[in-house]
């Protein structure tokens, strides 16, 4: 249930803005209006329970002198660009929630809110909120409710319109009326937005939920003001066809180099220092038929961005793994720039990172749901592709963040064991694992399938969660091992109560206590009666 707490807005200023307000005011929740101290990967934590995500983790973006936001989410900047082009700079502003009262007045007709995960039911939010289990309310939901309960929003009866990649969550959870939202926009803005906004400005009634038309690439404008993380879109859509994924259903575009460089320059001049290249797969950039990567185009893109003054950091958002094996030279040619301009350090050495999807070790599931992901290779080759590509990335000092999906529809024990087998093959690789519960997203092919919940996870799934946690700590923060052990022992009674007795093995493996007690201390091989289900031995027997 949503609680509207007006008391949180203690700084709300009841005075009307001197100019009567701005007709179109754009905003997003405090957590989406932050660059997490220039750390796009920490932004993942927005899906964690609020008590774990303190406000200082996500400071708001700075303001310009007039109170508008200096940086804003990229999608909001695209919307702003379309609206400024049509209605003029003076009629459109983008602001942080804390400054809404300075711009909303009797002249305000539309308050546009952009959101990626308003209710905290995306892959990351659902998974980590249910694992940590306390209170259950993700930070992203708390902040979205907080924004919607801001008294400035309701004061002059402007239309509240919500869009963005997470807008579907509100309509599918029937939360629209409860949150006081007039209209929800589903899909990409560029084609239909102006028509909708004109209607709203004329006082015409809007449908409660509007699905927007797919834009053609020429309709997608260049942003006019800087984006958070210096985000610049290089491709949109994917088309590899993974059944759980929404970008795959979007029309695929590679933006012209000149368009990209203009956005990079705009961001660099504004002092963002970082450029985040937004793409669902960098290897799709100007790719050839059958998803064959275009080495010349990708290398030129990265080199040209590198030459732009003021760009201290370059981060690519996502990559798929098969093209790394298909043409490892692409990685070898761009890695030196990515490492030199990386935000990250691994064991005191600069290293780059990129998000990749391993998802499963099962060739059967790859063939069923992700056949396009490993093109031009075959599903049976998936484990080899993963191992080889991670090797190439690591050899070039790129240490990826890798997602795994637990509970894909129809997943059987042999599929889960295949994933465990793959994790064993990857032992020693520099990877940050992020296991996720299968979530059926509204815009995906599997939208009618049920979400996978923690309560019906298999013991082997729990084993994967524990392994990933253990590998991540061993690889990235071995110095916190003792704290993790002590914390695990302290929290064991709570998690035993929350998740049942199966949690014992999970806590033992995650904390490293199983190795300590069963192997090292006793000095013997793991005994079958104590071995955590799905250990190497068991896996080997299945192969
Ligand atoms: S490769 Fe990635 S972005 Fe493309 S369809 Fe698959 S999961 Fe989606």
Automatic annotation (TrEMBL):
Its EC number is 2.8.4.3. The keyword Membrane does not apply. The keyword Repeat does not apply. Keywords: Transferase. One of its GO terms (molecular function) is tRNA-2-methylthio-N(6)-dimethylallyladenosine(37) synthase activity. PANTHER family: RADICAL SAM DOMAIN PROTEIN, SLL1084 PROTEIN. This is tRNA-2-methylthio-N(6)-dimethylallyladenosine synthase.
């Amino acid at each position: 249930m949503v609680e509207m707490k007006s008391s949180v807005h203690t700084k709300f200023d009841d005075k009307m803005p001197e100019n009567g307000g701005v007709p179109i005011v754009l905003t997003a929740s405090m957590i989406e209006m932050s660059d997490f101290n220039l750390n796009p990967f920490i932004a993942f934590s927005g899906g964690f329970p609020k008590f774990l995500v303190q406000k200082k983790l996500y400071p708001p973006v700075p303001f310009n002198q007039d109170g508008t936001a200096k940086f804003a989410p990229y999608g909001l900047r695209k919307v702003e660009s379309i609206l400024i082009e049509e209605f003029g700079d003076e009629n459109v502003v983008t602001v942080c929630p804390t400054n809404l009262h300075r711009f909303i007045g009797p002249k305000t007709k539309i308050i546009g809110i952009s959101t990626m995960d308003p209710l905290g039911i995306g892959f990351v939010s659902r998974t980590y909120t249910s694992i940590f289990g306390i209170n259950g309310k993700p930070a992203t939901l708390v902040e979205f409710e907080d924004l919607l309960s801001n008294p400035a929003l309701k004061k002059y009866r402007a239309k509240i319109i919500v869009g963005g990649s997470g807008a579907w969550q509100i309509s599918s959870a029937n939360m629209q009326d409860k949150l006081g939202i007039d209209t929800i926009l589903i899909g990409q803005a560029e084609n239909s937005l102006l028509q909708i906004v004109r209607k709203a400005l004329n006082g015409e009634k809007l449908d409660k939920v509007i699905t927007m038309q797919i834009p053609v690439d020429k309709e997608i404008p260049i942003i006019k003001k800087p984006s958070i993380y210096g985000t610049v879109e290089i491709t949109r859509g994917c088309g590899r066809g993974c059944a759980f994924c929404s970008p795959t259903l979007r029309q695929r575009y590679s933006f012209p180099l000149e368009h990209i460089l203009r956005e990079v320059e705009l961001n660099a001049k504004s002092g963002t220092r970082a450029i985040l290249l937004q793409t669902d797969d960098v290897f799709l950039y100007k790719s050839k038929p059958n998803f064959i990567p275009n080495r010349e185009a990708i290398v030129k893109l990265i080199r040209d961005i590198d030459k732009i003054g003021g760009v201290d950091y370059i981060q690519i958002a996502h990559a798929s793994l098969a093209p790394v094996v298909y043409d490892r030279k692409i990685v070898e040619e761009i890695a030196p720039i990515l490492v030199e301009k990386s935000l990250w350090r691994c064991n005191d050495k600069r290293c780059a990172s990129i998000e990749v999807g391993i998802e499963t070790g099962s060739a059967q599931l790859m063939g069923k749901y992700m056949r396009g992901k490993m093109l031009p290779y075959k599903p049976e080759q998936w484990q080899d592709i993963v191992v080889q590509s991670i090797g190439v990335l690591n050899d070039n000092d790129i240490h990826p963040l890798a997602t795994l999906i637990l509970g894909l529809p129809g997943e059987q024990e042999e599929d889960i064991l295949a994933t465990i087998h793959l994790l064993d093959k990857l032992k020693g690789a520099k990877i940050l694992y992020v296991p996720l519960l299968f979530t059926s997203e509204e815009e995906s092919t599997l939208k009618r399938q049920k979400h996978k919940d923690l309560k019906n996870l298999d013991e082997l799934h729990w084993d994967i969660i524990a392994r990933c946690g253990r590998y991540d700590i061993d690889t990235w923060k071995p110095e916190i091992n003792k704290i993790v052990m002590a914390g695990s022992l302290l929290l064991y009674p709570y998690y035993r109560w929350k998740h049942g007795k199966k949690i014992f093995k999970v806590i033992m493996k995650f904390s490293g206590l199983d190795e300590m007690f069963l192997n090292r201390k006793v000095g013997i091989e793991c005994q079958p009666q104590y071995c955590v289900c799905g250990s190497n031995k068991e896996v080997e027997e299945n192969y």
